Amino acid sequence: MSIDLSIHTKHNPDTLAQTLRTKGRLQIPDFLTVNTSEYLHRLLRENTVWHLSYNEGQDNFESEESAFNSLSPAQRQKFLNNIYSRAKDNFQYLFKQYYISQAIKLGENTGHPMHQVNDWVNSAAFLNFMRSLTATPEIRESDSYASIYGPGHFLTMHDDRHASHDRVAAWVISMTPEWNENWGGYLAFYDEKGNVTEAFKPAFNTLNIFTVPQKHAVQLVTPFAGQPRTSYLGWLLR
Q1: Residues 150, 236: Cα–Cα separation, whole Å
Q2: Residue of 206, 2, 8 whose CA lies nearest to 117
Q3: Residue 4: exposed, middle, or buried by beta-carbon count in 10 A (0-12, 13-18, 19+)?
Q4: Are 236 and 139 in contact (CB under 8 A)?
Q5: Mean pLDDT of 38-44
Q6: 222: burial class by Cβ within 10 Å (0-12, 13-18, 19+)?
Q7: How far is C-alpha 73 from the geometric centre of its chain's CA atoms?
Q8: What does the pLDDT look like over 203-213, one tens digit per residue?
Q9: Is the pLDDT score of 236 beyond 90?
Q10: Pairwise CA distance, residues 30 & 206, whole Å
């Protein structure tokens, strides 16, 4: 089953563009229609194809979730200790994701229901909204991911610049209902002194969009978080 995915018609990108241009970031609650948000949330809940995503320096890795789960408790703890040790002084991340646009390009999981998200974020309706919102008519495409941050997951400070991709802005459709403020997982933005200037709480059916480059991080999800932090995300590319 699939439905027509759509942005709520109450949002005028030309009106919202001034805030994004002034602040470099913007949060839009109730971004999608009710049917769209409920459908996409169900796809996240029902998806079984997740990879544990992490880095070792400049090298990026994706491991099957089942491979991590098959490790002994001691092996898991050693893996996590190495991750946290590198995070102390270096760029580091750890979370679960399904890289939708890459799976499509590689011909993986053909017919997966989440693949329609990539079609939608590359449709004229979505891209034209984003072109107006960012005042960047040269935007030609978007990539797409689904992500889960569970307890202990995080993404340290970085600015999203990429050596070979001309990223205009990052978008995140937060799909996390009833998040407690004490559970961490905020999308935090930093000034040159390392102060948090603004932080977006995980929420349901909310678009977070910010221009690139911009220093930000996803703060550690606490061990006592009562549910995962879930979202769809990608970059608008020139």
Answers
A1: 26
A2: 2
A3: exposed
A4: yes
A5: 98
A6: middle
A7: 29
A8: 999 999 999 99
A9: yes
A10: 6
